[in-house]
Design brief:
This protein is mostly helical. It is built from 14 helices and no strands. The N and C termini lie far apart (about 50 Å).
Length: about 240
Amino acid sequence: MSELLLRLESLAGELPQRTETAIVLTLAAYFAGLRLFAWLRSPAWCPPILLASCLLALLLALLPLDYAGYRQGVEWLTWLLGPATVALGVPLYQQVHHIRALWKPIALTLPPAAMLAAGYAVGIAWLLDAPPRILASLAPKSVTAPIAMGITQELGGSVSLLMGALLITGVMATLGITFMARGWRLEDERVIGFALGVNGHAIGTVRAFEIGPTAGAFASLGMSLTGVFTALWLPLMWHLMA
């Protein structure tokens, strides 16, 4: 292990700004997170993305690679978030017959759920005297990353702080919904999936696909609609309140 760290340190010292270094570290942390997740017997409270993020943060702390250089090196990976979000239209199409049958409850529950997700985070931060930059970074925390980044930049927030809020929100929402579904003996995959997508964005959607294709389709629907709805109403409301 020490020899591997020394080798990575040497590589990072030689190529501090190289894209290859950042990509190798990211992929290594991701696959290590998957292996660790399987070794821990797939706990719902600790998804692979959280493990991978912790491992990557540890690597960046140990190696002489500054965060600005790392972020520049993985810009194309961030760009891929957009096509990945669009690709979720495939499971939506496969489950469109279920979606048509429940369009009324979806239309009634989505707006208050999306507003509440943004409202309570901003409200708590405001009560704690957080500056506007932090409020703008927390407001779109329940929206999938590609849309949330655009909203945060428009509101004048910090993308780095937003990404941390997205990770925490996705993990906690997935954990909470999983435990509530078990406690209430809720077995309808459509309801569970939609709740995971609305509240847990991409992390919740991954969990929904582990439950089943129907849950995954409704999670994709909830995540997509939450992103579109929030992108429309949040900037307008933000400027009106400002």
